[in-house]
Amino acid sequence: MELENENTVDEIIESSATFWKKDMGAYVLRKGKKVLRGGSSLVDAGIRADDVLELIPDPEGG
Amino acid sequence: MAGLLRVGGEDQDRFDRSRRIGWLDLDRISDARVLVVGAGAIGNEVAKNLVLSGFQKITIVDMDHVVGSNLNRCIFFTKADASSRALKAEVVARGISSLADSVDATAVVRRIEELPPSVFAKHDVILGCLDNIAARVHVNAHSYAAGRVFVDGAMEGFLGKVTVVRPPDGACLQCGMNKTHAKVASLRFSCTGKGVVFHEPRLAAEITTTSVVAAVMVREALKVVSGRHGLLLSNLFYYDGQNRLFEEMEIPLDPSCPVHARLADRLQVSESDLSQWNVQ
User: Fold this and answer.
1) Using one digit for the tens of pLDDT, what is the confidence trace for B213-251?
2) Are residues B184 and A62, on separate chains, in Cβ contact within 8 Å?
3) What residues have CB less than 8 Å from B244, skipping those under 6 apart?
4) Which of B83, B106, B177, B240 has the most CB atoms in a 10 Å sphere around its CB?
5) Which residue from B154, B175, B180 is facing A61, i.e. has the nearest CB?
6) CB proximity A44 to B under 8 Å
7) CB contact, 8 Å: B248 with chain A?
8) CA-CA distance, B43 to B40, in Å (whole number)?
9) A46 CB near a chain B CB, below 8 Å?
10) Where are the domains of chain A?
11) Helix, strand, coil percent values for chain B (each to nearest 5)
12) Is B92 an interface residue toward A (CB < 8 Å)?
């Protein structure tokens, strides 16, 4: 993905879930072992070029 | 003088094998009050594990009734329960009572949102076995405000997760939520003009993931009650059974999340804080 410093984690989640046609549901973005805050910008979250971010589903059922 | 030595006597002690785990505090476990919120698939497994682990005082909250499609993953539900539309909380309470005479199980046939907030402080640990985000947000906020550890389980298909929320310093469930959670929560409700209808989507569910999630949840509860907080998950266990993955992740504390923002002001979590998540 091409991203700007001011892009937020929420925006990345929404864009990537749409692009990859993910099922409707809750998702989180992780960098390594850490779950990233939705409202954080890339700068706030300490994301740098070539970092690998992973979109993972957040299951809801019980 | 010590009591009489009986050859094979240890085999008559129900918890002999548990006692061999040095840090398990079986006295505190049997005395602890546990609140199980939700008596569906995870709730069945959690309740069973609690009793077999030595917990005795268990409150089970659920307003729903048994249906046939529950039977692929719920140990205590039967075809007869589905036919008679038996209430899940009552069936689970009866089921765990049959596992040990000492069990003191209370079934509460209500939505958790209908119970007074004091119910959280009256229990030592809260186990969330819920099937929707809005109820999780409610239990998360009230457990945190009551200073009780909240262990939340969730699953869908072969995906599962367990989150451990430890007030007063730990991250909470909402610290790890974002706009997709709010969107899903809002889609669960629709206004018909006569009131608000709650929509429950039919999610993929099966027993092996349920068992893994419930096992981790009860193991964390054992640590909480035994005073072994240093052994607790910190703070998220993520499981992908299809792809053979399980790992510990971290939800960092978010001071701006609704729960922590309120606590920072030293105010109780109010109903208006929860309204943005459609929580009553």
Assistant:
1) 999 999 999 999 999 999 999 999 999 999 999 999 999
2) no
3) none
4) B177
5) B154
6) no
7) yes
8) 5
9) no
10) 9-57
11) 40, 20, 40
12) no
Hey, is the C-beta of A31 within 8 angstroms of any chain B C-beta? no
Residue B52 has pLDDT above 90, yes or no: yes
* pLDDT one-digit tens code per residue, A1-33: 888 889 999 999 999 999 999 888 999 999 999
B249/A35 Cβ within 8 A: yes
User: Residue B135 to residues B17, B32, B62, B116, B181: CA-CA distances in angstroms?
Assistant: 37, 24, 11, 14, 12
Q: Does A39 reach chain B within 8 Å, measured CB to CB?
A: yes
CA-to-CA distance for B248 and B161, rounded, in angstroms? 10
More confident residue, B1 or B22: B22
Would an 8 Å CB–CB cutoff place B40 in contact with chain A? yes
Strands B159-165 and B189-191: unpaired
Give the model confidence (pLDDT) of B179-206 as tens digits: 999 999 988 765 555 565 666 778 899 9
pLDDT in tens, B63-115: 999 999 999 999 999 999 999 999 999 999 999 999 999 999 999 999 999 99
Per CB-CB distance under 8 Å, the chain B contacts of A56 are 238
Judged against a pLDDT cut of 90, whether residue B275 lies above it is answered with no
Q: Which domains does chain B have, with CATH numbers?
A: 21-275 (3.40.50.720)
CA–CA gap between residue B231 and residue B220 (Å, rounded): 8
Cis previous bond, B235, omega within 30: yes
The percentage of chain B sitting over the pLDDT mark of 90, rounded to a whole number, equals 82
pLDDT classification of B32: cutoffs 50, 70, 90: very high
Beta partners for residue B149, in sequence order: B125
Best mutation target, B126, B152, B178, B250, to test chain A (most A CBs within 10 A) = B178
Which chain B residues have a beta carbon less than 8 Å from that of A57? 156, 159
